[in-house]
User: Which sequence fits this backbone?
């Protein structure tokens, strides 16, 4: 059995990793860490785990020592030291935070306000979106797990950009996320009286996921991609719905676009291109590692409209991290990820 450990196990992404790994047939959840709850069993922090996972929260150093692969579910700026320790000890490392997502150290410092401490590790890191970078993932031992918004957007636009069916400038991304995307630490905008029966945009054209989206889509397109990103906070726990607007190139039809998506995702385990006319819904992917996609064309404006939905805690975080771990260890990609979406 592959021994897996989680640093930051009591956060929302961390506890989702626990939920997935405790039922993984080829990985044993061997150790967990939490600064806030060190010494306490996980089941005391999350009573749902009583008699299912009673592991005590130990130090990050102990997690690295005990495990073959370490998942870090930490805020940005806190994963680099653990990544260095894993590299030094021959352990595989998957960062669910932002520390290894951006290729350019200056971009990382600009958007996150943190320096790149180990440039050599950043050069080795691979961006872990399996449907787009599967072969690179298999060859590395350090993964920067994608952000939740960027996952929904990259999967939504990649086939159209790869085939040159849409313009690479002037893309507009309108996304809505559940409140778990803000993390477990209390904040005013996710306080129940403030977010319930409410709906608002935030960090308009200034969200930290913008450079990550542009970086990924530029790689796929083979040239610079620019976009405007407007995120919104939904008064629900889980889910992201992204609506993407792109100008189709002259002579391109919706049928051509759909054929490109069928070719790209026809054999993908976790991407479902919906039948024409059926709308995406965050409820259809809740609790699962799926991404559902639908395509539309506006004949009046010549715009392609792509909608995609994911569970931000699974395909947008923990599920994708386990998908990456499966690739690192040569396991079938869907091992331990066969969760059926919750019907309600």
Assistant:
């Amino acid at each position: 059995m592959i021994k897996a450990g989680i640093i930051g196990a009591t956060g929302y992404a961390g506890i989702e990793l626990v939920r997935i790994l405790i039922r993984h047939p080829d990985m044993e959840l061997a150790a967990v860490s939490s600064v806030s709850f060190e010494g306490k069993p996980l089941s005391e922090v999350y009573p749902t785990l009583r008699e299912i996972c009673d592991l005590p929260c130990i130090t990050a150093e102990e997690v690295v020592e005990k495990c073959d692969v370490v998942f870090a579910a930490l805020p940005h700026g806190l994963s680099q030291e653990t990544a260095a320790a894993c590299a030094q000890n021959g352990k595989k490392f998957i960062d669910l935070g932002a520390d290894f997502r951006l290729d350019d150290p200056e971009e990382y410092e600009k958007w996150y306000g943190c320096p790149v401490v180990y440039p050599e590790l950043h050069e080795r890191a691979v961006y872990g979106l399996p449907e787009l970078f599967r072969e690179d993932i298999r060859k590395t031992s350090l993964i920067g797990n994608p952000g939740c918004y960027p996952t929904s957007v990259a999967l939504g636009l990649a086939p159209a950009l790869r085939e040159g069916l849409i313009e690479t400038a002037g893309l507009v991304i309108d996304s809505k996320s559940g409140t778990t995307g803000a993390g477990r630490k209390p904040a005013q905008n996710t306080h129940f009286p403030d977010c319930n029966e409410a709906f608002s945009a935030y960090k308009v054209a200034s969200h930290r996921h913008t450079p990550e989206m542009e970086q990924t889509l530029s790689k796929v397109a083979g040239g610079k991609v620019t976009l405007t990103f407007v995120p919104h906070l939904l008064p629900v726990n889980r889910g992201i719905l992204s609506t993407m607007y792109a100008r189709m190139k002259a002579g391109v039809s919706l049928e051509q676009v759909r054929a490109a998506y069928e070719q790209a995702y026809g054999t993908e385990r976790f991407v479902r291109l919906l039948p024409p006319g059926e709308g995406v819904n965050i409820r259809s992917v809740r609790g699962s590692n799926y991404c559902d996609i639908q395509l539309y064309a506006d004949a009046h404006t010549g715009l392609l409209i792509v909608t995609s939905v994911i569970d931000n805690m699974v395909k947008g975080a923990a599920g994708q991290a386990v998908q990456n771990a499966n690739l690192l260890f040569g396991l079938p990609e869907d091992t331990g990820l066969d969760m059926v979406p919750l019907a309600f």
Q: What stands out?
A: The chain has twelve helices and 14 strands. The longest strand covers residues 240-247.
